[in-house]
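Handout, section 4.2: multi-component inputs.
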Amino acid sequence: MNRHTSKWNFWRGLALLMTLLGAGQAQAAGLLTPSDGSVPSLEIGDHRVEVVIEDGYAITTVEQVFVNPHGRDLEAQYSFPVPEHGTVVELTVWIDGQPVTGEVLEREQAQQLYEQEKAAGHDAGITEKDSYKVFETRVSPVRAGQDTRVRLVYLQPAQVDTGIGRYVYPLEEGGVDEAKLAFWTANEQVTGDFSFDLKVRSVYPVEAVRMPNQPQAVIQAEAEGEWSVHLGNRAPSLGGASGPDMPDEGLADPGLQSAPGAPAFTLDRDLVVYWRHQAGLPGSVDLVAHKSPGKQRGTFMLVVTPGDDLQPIQEGKDWVFVVDVSGSMQGKYATLVDGVERALRKMRPEDRFRMVLFNNRSWELTPGFVSVSEQSVTHYSQALLAFAPCNGTNLYAGLEQGLRSLDADRTGAIVLVTDGVANVGETRQRHIMELTRQNDIRLFTFVLGNSANRPLLEGLARVSNGFAVNISNSDDIVGQLLTATSRVTHQALHDVKVEIEGIKTADLAPQAFGSLYRGQQLVVFGHYWGDGMAEVRLRARISGEDKLYQTRFVFPAVATENPEVERLWAYARVEEAMQEISDYGEDADLRQAVVDLGVEYGLVTDYTAMVVVADDVFEKLGIDRTNRARRGIEEAARQMRSDRPAVSRRVDTQQPMYTSNRASHSGSGALDAWTLLALAPLALFLWRRRGLCRRNS
Amino acid sequence: MNNACAAVAQSPPSMRMPWCSIALTAVAIAAFLGLGAAPEAWVFDRVAIADGEWWRLVTGHWVHSDKGHAAWDISMLLLFGFLFEARLRWRLPLVLLAATLAVDAWLWWGVPGLRLYCGLSGILNGLLVAGLLAWWRETRHPLLLLTVLASALKILIELHLGQALLTQTVWPSVPTAHVAGFLCGLAFHLILSQRAVRVLNE
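Output:
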């Protein structure tokens, strides 16, 4: 069987497996009410989402109206999954008809203030983060028979992988918190207007935009370098298809007209949007900076999109499947086994496999590595099927067993299939990470849905120089797996280091870069002082050989178009600190660092929360309105950006860092002048035939 | 050589208007002018095909990634039409269909990492080989076989370089699609030759 075909089919089998694992866990974002019926349920009247993706990051604005049809005041509690590397930067609640933007305080202080105002019957709101799982917003009171309007804004980096950008509006919860699921019931129905409007603005040409599983989405190429996506339960009117900006006053929107009998929208499935850049774009370096006039220190986001000079890997591999067979896998076990069998049947003849299972303990199903054959695949698939999933999840034991008896002479990789919620044996993330770190083997895993244990799974991939692929139930699974396949079948840049000389830089995030796989972008945040020309070098190893890429460009003296970069930098630092806390346990200094960053930059983190109270209460308590001011600056910058065409942030045009084009999944067949040259004998034949005909006549 | 000359002299007139090729050329031009470069709904997109958009298996070959790509492929289609349609006659659409299937099969199973593809050249290689060999069967002229060999050599060089020799298309070149088309043209000829032998024997 063809080598590439086998690899592809192997990953396609895994895709099925991942899809099946993710299935059946769907819980929705929505308004929470206790399952015991002690409190009546509120309604989501309107839910309007506006997303702008530009300059390497996405700004998501969600405006909602909570409706209280009951005869008493109630508290609204809205929960939604944490977006990938995203954080809430604004909670605005309309109090007495006026929007009041929240401020970030240390979490306990914010909770205390909210409870105090709530108890006094005053209007208040709070947004908190529940670890890696959800953001929760509470608003009190929603007056009897009235509506309350709230707005949430969050920021997140928007990266492009192998020429394809991906944005997820997360709505499905993973259902990993069983206690919470038992206690709360989520009302995910939008009874009024629902709309989702997304704009992609880029000077790198975008060939196509796609929204899988949403055939009613209206996708249009707008002005040069701009695409729009509209989805809603109201029909867009002529000329208003891309969705206008949300007005501050009221939700009436002349660009949209009500469709008779517009169906209620259910917030139970992620909305995924892909945008595909033109193939053949050069590898590039983009710099997005923010530096206020007169300030010495600026903040930057450096995005390196490598040229494609990573070659395909040819030799056979050893694959170790570490499969979670705990009780939580019940109900989907037969289909899981089917998925594993399909994956095994598609492996290459020169590959070998081992299979390690774990629940309360771990054991090996195979006697060491087994060559791929019809008999071995049938035998181990049947053995797997004969097993009944049960008990808890001892992830540590499973990984430990999987890492044993590796063949040092062959390239090996671990495919970890789990929800990542360890609850038996060694459950401390630090120890699980340490186990992986000690072994020189790449670990590949999948972050399934929004509530998978992302910190653990991404951490395991990071310390092993592997990678974790995010998969939503709304994703193009085939597309996501194409990306994963492309990565594991090509060389990678290892031990990546970035050096910046000629200008003072500090506070880089991430602090270590690890490996960079085919198609991945490298995003570096940091601070810089002064301005001027800088030498930027990217050092790495490809298959043991040192590689150096370099360029020169100017860090600007003043840059005011992207103030959001400051928050993105701060949140990248917060994520690093939180990763360290997850790995090694809570530390007072790290905790304080997160609090300081959260409060200074207005970020909702595990230790900070955003609270909204009436303006006079803020004033009375002496709480600075730094977040309100920051949001004002950001909103003005956003408006300014939207009023002009997208601009290039590429800085290596004078001295390109890469000579080759970016990796892409595109290809074409083309004939050329050499085809004409190949036809020369035919031309001679025709010429001679013509001469012969003339002579005959 | 005298036999070859005689065969050449007996060959049917080739300047008959190739209406089928002209019509297909018009379709390809209209697709490029009307839909632009690499229209999203028409290109070979593995993800969309897996989603049930089967028409892309055909339409992907008739759209192009840029002007140069379209100009070369479409002009070659017209040229091959003038050269071979009179000889292939009813077999011309059959060759195009067979080459379409062959190139699609190769792209799907042989280049699983390729998500998107467009362009006529893969199937044009099939048409070229089938046309040349059909002509050679009539004339047995060695220059026609030499043209087949020269085309094969060009493809081998492309394979070695991993890209087209001169054309820089916006979407990177996939030389193995040319191999698939070429082999399909060869197979087409062999199958028809065997059929012809059987008919003669009967």
